[in-house]
Amino acid sequence: MPENASDHLATGPRVGIRPFTYEDGAEFTARARESKHLHQPWLFPPVGADAYAVYARRLIEDPTKAGFLVCELGEGPKGVAGAPGGGAIAGFININNIVEGGFLCGALGYGAFAHAAGRGLMSEGLGLVVRHAFGKMGLHRLEINVQPGNAASIALARHCGFRLEGFSPDFIYMDGAWRDHERWAITAEMIRSR
Hints:
Strand order of the largest sheet: 1-2-3-4-5-6-8-7
Number of helices: 6
CATH superfamily: Gcn5-related N-acetyltransferase (GNAT)
CATH topology: Aminopeptidase
Radius of gyration: 16 Å
CATH class: Alpha Beta
Shape: globular
Largest sheet: 8 strands, mixed
C-alpha cells in the first residue's frame, strides 16, 4: 500500500499510525515471522495469509476493536524485510474490548517487529494511539494486561505513563495455560495533567 501523510491518523517525528488494511498482509506476516523470537511466549501475531485475513477482518469490521499499524516515516524502500524507512511497518497496537457508555474503556495489545525493536518507535506510536483514543475515539481509559516476565512490554507501558494498578492471577489463557498478568492503565485526566 503506498503511503503518504494522508494515510496516517496521526504522526510524530519518526512514525505515523494508520488502520490495518487487508493489503498489509504480506508485509505484516513476513515481519511477524522474522520476529517470533521477540514475541513468543508473550504474543502470537498471525504469520500466514489466511490467519492474517481473519485477524485483520476482526480489527477492521468489529466495532469493539481498533487496530493501528505503527509505520516508519521517511524515504526508503517499503516492504523490504528488515529495511527501515519509507512506510515500513514497525509494529502494531490494537485496542480490544472497547466499551462505550459510562465506561469508555479499551484494552491495549501491542508488538514491535524485530527491525524496529529498541529504537523508541513503539513508544512514539503508543503515545500517538493514546492521544487518538482519548481524542477522536472519545475513550476515557486504556488498560494493558501484561505477563510479569515480559520486561519489554512493562517498560513500554511505564515509559508511556501507564500506572500499575494490580495483579490478576490466572487472568488470560495463552500458549496452553492460564497466565498471571499485571494490570496497567492510563486515563484521559492523566494525559491532561502532564
